[in-house]
Design a protein that fits this description.
With 189 residues, the protein is an all-alpha fold. The chain folds into 3 domains: 1-42, no CATH class; 58-139, no CATH class; 151-189, no CATH class. The chain is 76% helix and 0% strand. The protein is built from 10 helices and no strands. The protein has helices at residues 10-16, 18-26, 32-37, 44-74, 80-101, 105-110, 115-140, 143-150, 153-163, 171-188. It starts with 9 loop residues before the first helix and ends with a helix. Mean pLDDT is 77; it is low at 1-17 and 32-42.
Length: 189
């Protein structure tokens, strides 16, 4: 059954903290909307803070990943694709563990032909191209040029969000994306 385990209420999870809280939050139905509806998180501020914190954590992880990939490749004993194989294996193991903890492994394996999972396969192909290209570019060039260019995916992702998904785009966001492009050009010179 999706949601928090019957034996773990929000107060208990907050008191215990750590891994137990994280597992409770990643279970199906416990996305920000689901938690908010259940009364575990109140107000829009908590929802906004949560995804911003996850985005900041992702940014920090990508920053460290760049450093570690460059260090591994500088050693001369590991090729780009050796580093990629190790790194992506760790990601795959983690992702499978999360799916299993959420109780979604059986539906994943038995319902792979569903359209959302076909989009996930397309996403996996795109991610494979993106990460393989990033690792290869890092093996050839300086991180302070490669990473900003690679980071331009924010512009592509934002534009696709508007054009394909119909998401709103304010003028402040347009100006921010233009500033990002100018910043990347300046860094890459």
């Amino acid at each position: 059954m999706p949601g928090l385990d019957p034996g773990i209420d929000a107060v208990t999870v907050q008191q215990v903290g750590g891994l137990r809280e994280w597992i409770a939050r990643i279970k199906p139905g416990n996305d920000e909307r689901g938690i908010q509806e259940k009364g575990h998180v109140r107000g829009r501020g908590a929802m906004v803070q949560s995804y911003i914190l996850w985005a900041l954590l992702g940014m920090a992880g990508y920053s460290l990943m760049t450093l570690f990939v460059k260090l591994a490749e500088r050693s001369g004993s590991a090729t780009t694709y050796m580093v990629l194989a190790v790194s992506t294996t760790i990601v795959a193991i983690f992702a499978i563990a999360v799916v299993a903890l959420r109780g979604e492994l059986k539906p994943l394996l038995l319902e792979l032909e569903r359209p959302p999972l076909l989009w996930a396969i397309a996403g996996g192909i795109a991610l494979t191209i993106a990460v393989s290209s990033l690792f290869h570019a890092l093996s050839l060039g300086p991180a302070n040029v490669v990473v900003p260019i690679y980071g331009m995916f924010i512009v592509g992702g934002a534009l696709l969000g508007v054009l394909v998904l119909g998401e709103p785009m304010s003028w402040t966001k347009v100006i921010g994306l233009i500033a990002a492009v100018i910043g990347v050009v300046l860094i890459s010179l």
